[in-house]
Design goal:
It is a single chain. The protein is globular, with a radius of gyration of 19 Å. The N terminus is likely disordered. It contains eight helices and no strands. Helix 1 packs antiparallel against helix 2 and helix 2 packs antiparallel against helix 5. The chain is mostly helical.
Length: 261
Amino acid sequence: MFGTMLVPMTTPPSTHDEPIDFTQLDPSALPAELVAHARLVWADRVRTEYRSIQIAARFLTEALAAGEPLDVVRRISETIDEERRHTELSRRMCEALGGPVPSPRDVAAPLEDLHAVPIEERVLATAISLFLVNETFSVGYIEDLLSRAEHPVTRAVLASIAGDEAEHEAFGPELVSRWLRDLPAGKRAAWRGFTSRLVRAHLDRAEQVLARTPPEKHDLVHWPEPDRAHLGLHGEVRLALLCKRTYEEKLAPTLAKLGLG
């Protein structure tokens, strides 16, 4: 998964059926240092998207074991296929950039053993971490890139991913709200703590970057990065600023509404 929108925008529909001509991306026509960085970033996106497939696949079995409604099962199943598609798009970007292309064997990782955790807690933990917290930050980062990316290949890849991620983001609050509804106050407080730790990990990384950045530069206007956006990249300061804005404008209000803020 993916790091503010400068103006409000509507995420375009995902164009799954429209083939992307990756031959239009010519790395030799771009600065070598930028291309080298892009190869690393897109290779890491192969890893994170593949990891999302693994987590969503486990979540499907957990949701089935918990007796989730079939509509929820369908949406999780769709998420698995969407994450697979994102992994493939990231892999194709690696190819187009002329860098190493990670294989599933290269990026697969063992999942944490959660068998001792009650199934209801596992479902809620994944709903909060994957579909609520991570997806909200991811959508903020991708939409920022999509609003600025001008290269047709990069823009097509980001548009395809953004359409799916926005649906995941909407799914999270709905699912979490239902699971929290009947919990006693003590358990709700425990889940607030769980959520706070997840969010704090994102914000701590951003604050560490901004602590090294002069306060007068704490505004996106100072970090336009058109060359980076060309290849779907963020600099660390822009990403940190996006993290804080996404939290303040999108995630914090959602968490407050759910009683997790």
